[in-house]
Amino acid sequence: MQTPDRTTLLRELKNYLLLLEDVGYSEIPCETKLFAETGSLEPTIPSPVKIMASGKKATQLAQVREELGDCTRCKLSQGRKNIVFGSGNPQADLVFVGEGPGADEDEQGLPFVGRAGKKLTEIIEKGMNLDREKDTYICNIVKCRPPGNRDPEKEEIVACNPFLIQQLKAIKPKVVVALGKPAASTLLGRSVPITKERGTWHDYEGFKLMLTLHPAYLLRAYTVENRKAVHEDMKKVLKELGK
Ligand code: URA
Question: What does the pLDDT look like over 43-102, one tens digit per residue?
């Protein structure tokens, strides 16, 4: 077998670390076997399949990520730097679904890490008194950045939708929250007037679905009314979660 060059090795290592992060690891799982067993004191890094077996939901989520692969199912793949699969706890009872990665998310390969992400973290941690990493899982209706932050197109949403459904089926949350009109409209399969329908419960593939305003909208229209609306919606979510 040919030895891969340094660039390939680094790319594969980066993909491996992103995969671990995607399925909920915050540290590198590492096994150090005894000298007597292996003839070496070098730590051995187990294969993803071996590690993921530690949690059924994490394993299933890792399988979904693997199936997505280096996706080229729609044209968004042409302009992306990184696939933004999702992040958080695969065991979480609560999943937030946004619209699609922006520039910061594309750069880092992680959802909601820019300004809207900071607002979402504030809603989760200050508003709901939950821990973003421990209590939630966050993903988007499309996993690659739409150019210039335009709304994702129908065929892009359709190409990505099976992966969103599989993510939710792996996690099996008690509640899914759609953030903003594109996410709500995608999940409900119709054009949702979000300012009218926010705060209402729906069914998505058997999951309890709450609709609320997108944090980026909240930043743009930072009114007492909008902030109160999101607060009320999240209170309903907490009640449903028994918190
Ligand atoms: N907005 C979204 O809808 N998703 C992200 O990941 C970031 C910003």
Answer: 444 444 333 335 999 999 999 999 999 999 999 999 999 999 999 999 999 999 999 999
Q: CA torsion 154→187→56→92, rounded to 10°?
A: 130
Residue 112 Cα to ligand 1 middle (Å): 5
Output the DSSP codes for 37-61: HHS----B---HHHHHTT-HHHHHH
Ligand 1 pocket member 152 (CB < 6 A):
no
- CA separation for the pair 214, 211 (Å, rounded): 9
pTM of the model: 0.81
Choose one of 22, 80, 99 to mutate for the ligand 1 pocket test, by most ligand atoms within 8 angstroms of C-beta.
99
Q: How far is the CA of 115 from the centre of ligand 1 (A)?
A: 9
Binding site membership of 186 for ligand 1 (Cβ less than 6 Å): no
Pick the CATH number of 73-241 from 3.30.300.20, 3.40.30.10, 3.40.470.10, 1.10.10.10: 3.40.470.10
Atom index in ligand 1 nearest the CA of residue 116 equals 8
Q: Which amino acid is at 87?
A: S
